[in-house]
Amino acid sequence: MTARRLDKGGRIDRSRPVSFRWDDKTYGGFGGDTLASALMANGQTILGRSFKYHRPRGIMSAGVEESGAIVSVGAGARHEPNVKATMEELYDGLEAHGQNAWPNVRFDLGSVNGLFGRFFSAGFYYKTFMGLPPFEWGRGTGIWMQYEKLIRKAAGMGTASREPDPDCYDHVHAFCDILVVGSGPAGLNAALTAAEAGRDVMLVEQDFELGGDYINDPGAEAERTALIAAVERAGVRVLTRTTAFGLYDSGVAGLVERVTDHLATPDRHLPRQRFWTVRAGATVLATGAIERSIAFGGNDRPGVMTASAARSYLNRFGVLPGKRVVIATTNDSTLDVACDLAAAGAEVVLADARDNADAPTGVKLRTGLAPLVTHGRRSVQGVTLASRSGSAWAKASREACDLLLVSGGWSPVVNLSSHRGAKPEWKADLACFLAGPTEEPIHMAGSANGIWNRSDCAASGVAAARLAMGEQAEVVAPGGWIRPIRPVYEVRVPGTKAKAFVDPQHDVTADDVHLAHQEGFVSVEHLKRYTTLGMATDQGKMGNVIGLALMAEALGREVPAVGTTRFRPPYTPVAIGALAGRNVGHHFKPLRRTPLHDWNLRHGATMTEAGLWQRPWYFAREGETITEAYIREATTVRDTVGICDVSSLGKIAVQGPDAAEFLNRVYSNAFAKLAVGRARYGIMLRDDGMVMDDGTTWRLGEADFLMTTTTTNAGRVMVWLEELLQTRWSDLRVHVTSVTDLWAGVSVAGPQARNVIAASLEDGTDISDGTLPFMGVAPVTLKGGIQGHIARISFSGELAYELYVPADHGEEMMDLLWPAAKAAGGCLYGLEALGALRIEKGHVTGAELDGRVTIDDAGLGKMASTKKPFIGSSLRQRPELTRADRPCLVGIFPKDRSQTFNGGALLCATNKATGFGEGWITAVTHSPALGHWIGLGYIAGGHEAWAGKTVTATDPVRKGDVAVEIVSPHMFDPEGARMHG
Amino acid sequence: MTRFTAWNVFWQGITGQKGWTRQWRDPEPKAHYDVVIVGGGLHGLATAYYLSKVHGVQNVAVLEKGWIGGGNAGRNTTIVRSNYAQPGNREFYEHSLRLWENLSHELNYNVMFSQRSHIALLHSPGAIDAASRNYNTMRRTGTPDAEIWDLPTLKRAVPHLNYAANARFPIIGAAVQKRAGTARHDAVVWGYARAADARGVDIIQNCKVEGLAREGGRITALDTTRGRITAGKVAFAVAGSTSLLWQMAGLGGLPIESHKLQAFVSEPLKPLLDQVVVFGMGGAHFYISQSDKGGMVFGGDLDWYKSYAQRGNLPIVQDVAEAAMSVLPCLGRVKLLRHWSGVVDMSMDGTHFICKTPLDNLYLNAGWNYGGFKATPASGWWFADLIANDRPAPMIASFDLKRFERGLQIDERGAGPDCKLHG
Amino acid sequence: MLRLACPFCGLRDHSEFSYGGDGSIIYPALDAPVQDWHDAVFLRDNVCGRQVETWQHVHGCRMWLLVERDTLTHEIHSVRPAHSELASTLEGAE
């Protein structure tokens, strides 16, 4: 290939020279170039290496179907692999490299693979690498995994950066009446028609210029500019550099807009790309058609490309891609190419596979011929043609050339319609698939519907817009060539050895397709999986139809008999970063902070994750470890007083005349007669009788309850209550409202709790045991007039209160409570100390209530009412759930009290070294009150069954075995004297 | 049948690949089979293979409505592991993994099972305890390769994860199964098909069951698009379509809902990730590995609503991409090449069924949730055992349809009787 | 993306909603026998085609809705409040 930049012509901006680097050398191009056109103009022919054989590859197309010139762009954290050079807009300072080659794409040691090509046929790797060669001796996976290491190194194309992507991506949501995809003659006319009729239209174009096929035809420039001006006047929202990559349900399209990829120095405030979710009333697909090649020997050699690509390089980029050109064609579409190349000074031979054909003046026409094999070293230097002999081919003459252009036919881009499940239909007379019928408002236009001439494309755009608007329109029939196409898919004569590629990027050859047939992989799905046809980064845009046709030929049947591949989104590959948008790094998931978050941090909290929440974990003093801190905190609570942020607990207002009845059905224990001003601990089950959640519910008034839930289950419980009220018990007059975020809440626990709180309340407020007994609830006013609620509830087992004030007053509350607590020798405590306190008491949390335990398992069976039915009361009676040997909640002490053990250890009878064991440990802590480590867990039969027996807590993944004793889960103050005090 | 060996690959290379024959025949259906397996996916083909190999059952057919392996067999993310902890699942998946380990040799087909480790990331002390319980159980029940890793060990093994201090969910450790890994899904389909075919099993493609003839408590014949076939025993292994056939047999409801699960693959890359990595935190769920071809293969949650459509929607695409970026932030410029979806049988407790049915000669294999691919060998093994002996072996005794009546829910997640929560 | 017409909020993306389950199930009385509860909780017709199902507009008005939808094509045929009284009130108002 001896391409050169012409002195004039093309759409490039010769006043804007651009400097870029290719494999560490500097080259020049112009504004309006693509990387491919600029490299071509600089005489670069080998730009890539193929996947398997590492064959040299050049530019094969001028669009998204490119499967030869695949390169890497950018450096460092911005290094992007697998970029199609044909789609990469040139900018000043662009840095690109060849990939999948060593030391470089021009000279690649990997090409030694090609020597073994005869063994590397389709699916050969399924037939070997299992064991020791030559007869696959051995067992297991060890030998395969050694081979696999080498295979993995050889496979892959580009290299991904190891650094986090430094750029940001945006998500945009949009709505329109009509989405038009593609801005060629059909798309522009469709958009114009709909917009002039008053519709809200979006027009998207993957290229950086509008016009589609107009762009490659200088003679159509006036028509193009006029149309674009009209489209803009009509108020169409136009997005260039934007690919509609997928169509989804309800008229939703996914688009990706490349915002800064083409800029040398992007504005820092711009995202690299935008991912658009567009909801369209109707969609017009004017997505064009893609020219395909033919399978013949050496059809992958640099210097072989699609015919239309040459026209694009010539007319759009001002590059004459070759001096001596052979065009191998099967259809009329190459006439313009031949004409333009000849006019630009190339010597052109048009080898038409048809017996009758026309040729423009200055072009040498030869009919009944097709390419058989190419010649040349680093790029094409000649082609041997074959002539038709009956239904086969015979070797004919050789033509010298430096550029071989091929047109095997055209494949309309029906991918997006196929995303919707519309099965493409084979149109034999046009030798292509057209979009199948669909009930959805999706309308094909232009060459995407097999319409080949420009005026018909324009008319079909108008018609598609009318249909999209719900009007009648005369549909333009597909076709439009003067002489019919004579499709050619493969050219071979007996004895030819050169590889004929069907899918050049993945090195799938015609022989591979034949072998697949021979081995029974005859359906399209099997063919593509066995040979990897169409699985490369071009997703089969160039090769799929050839593969299908070859298989059909082998079967002696028509193409549809092989089947049609369903296209999968995305149409062209989409950056994962764009799909993720801004929801990355610290913004990956919402972060929930309590109203006291900042206050806690100011007072020394270390936070921990609790679902989406962050909660104080511990409040270390200078030099303290977490263990020292939580032991001190828990000790302080038992000795004096501690304050803990419990704002994240779920809080649900349950209100209405039937609220008591509702709670009575939801909770396993009775709530109907709960007195106003009292709280009760409740357990709710799922329909299947397993424990769902627990918490206290406070009766604030006759028809007014405040339910608390665990932090983890707050959302789930809320949804559950709403479901019950709206779908099952719509007769109940109850309203539920989530008020979690409205309140800041603390637990104040310890012998001094009452004094600390009393000091913070308005003078004269009485919270003595008589007025506010255990499980009592009352409205209170804090100093400064802050209205709140207090409940005397204890999770720690101490005299304790939960105090809630409106979220905005949370810090004021803390500023009242904390000085009083500090004066009393108290502390702030976090989840770790809370855990220690509750484990000592045998109170359960999510670690124990893991969705697989019954209320009896958790030792709370007495809370299941026998006097009323409730959710789960029926299914909890199933036999497996009432067995006596079910694991039950127990306390655990180390036999040697100086030892520690771990949550997650299994509890096993000491003489049994294997098996599931008798139970497991859910949570452990050092107990300050008892002076040694303790745990909670489950064991078959409960603690009575294991009294006096030694059990092994086995933890082979971490710590090994520890001898333990099983005790009652109520390990500290079992009578509850402290909290009732 | 030409044996698959390095020698034959070499010899066929020399002699122009002429000696390779069809990997399985394309027979016309016979009028009668002793056993008809409906469903030419992985489980159906594996069942046919073991029926013939282990139980000597002759005259077996596998009926496939399209092309074998066209359903979930080719739509999954190819992960093989046995880190299930509940009794029943534990033994079953471990047996499956053991069969996987020698499957290539067993079938004389390289299924490319690569034991490259399965690594579940952990983010809190509570999560480490919960994982330890499961991995301790594994250690004590025949799975020696279960480990809990601390952060330095993890960093050495998997260097490119997001270890940044400002990560939304900082990683503090991992639960690791070293014998777990990935396999080439299509190869497993073809390997079982070829091996079953070689033993005389008729694999009949493009043969859709359109009706079932019942006489009393038996199915006597299947009406198919390729004619009526009478059968001694009938076995369903049709993930995604189980309820449809079940109702065709007049059997009513099942503890199964059809949901769709998407899968994703990126463009091929030079080696970046050597293990299967799993992330689950803050309501997200994500798993990723790199295929031998170099594509990053990943997936996440169900689309959350019931569906028989084999196509997914954007919200989950977005969720999965977010998780991908949070686990491997270097993936930002890596491009998604394809995404697709399969229809999975989600069961009420997240566990499958291999069992007898209310009809005497009908057997059911269904409800695989996310677990179908990895279960393939054991599923085929034990389903064949059930069909041949007409009684469930102890290994599969709890995988029956009556377990919910008894109160047995094999619920690895503790999610309760809501199919969509068992992903 | 499915688009659901919430009777209270209008046409919205399905990501604002959460799917409940089979809307044709009639849950038995709380004290009904175990078998009745078993069938309601565990057994599903798992319709391929048009089915009635529940969704909640969880990121909107939080109303539970009965949606008639095709599980094969995802086409939405109707949406009404699950709360029977609300549904008839709304329909009366139309």
Characterize the structure shown.
The complex is a heterotrimer of chains A (981), B (423) and C (94). Chain A is α+β, with helices and mostly antiparallel strands. Chain A has 21 helices and 51 strands. Chain B has helices spanning 6-14, 42-53, 89-101, 103-107, 125-140, 151-157, 185-198, 242-248, 314-327, 372-389, 403-406; strands spanning 32-38, 60-63, 79-80, 118-122, 146-150, 173-177, 181-182, 202-204, 209-215, 218-224, 227-236, 256-268, 276-281, 284-290, 295-306, 335-347, 353-356, 362-366. The longest helix of chain C is centred in the C-terminal third of the chain and has 10 residues, at 84-93. The mean pLDDT of chain C is 95. Chains in contact: A-B, A-C, B-C. At the A-B interface, strand 7, helix 2, helix 9, helix 10 and strand 31 of A face helix 1, helix 5, strand 5, helix 7 and strand 12 of B.
The CATH superfamily name of the domain at 168-290 and 412-481 and 573-588 in chain A is: FAD/NAD(P)-binding domain
Question: What's the β-strand tally of chain A?
Answer: 51
Strand % of chain C is: 35-45%
CATH class of the domain at 168-290 and 412-481 and 573-588 in chain A: Alpha Beta
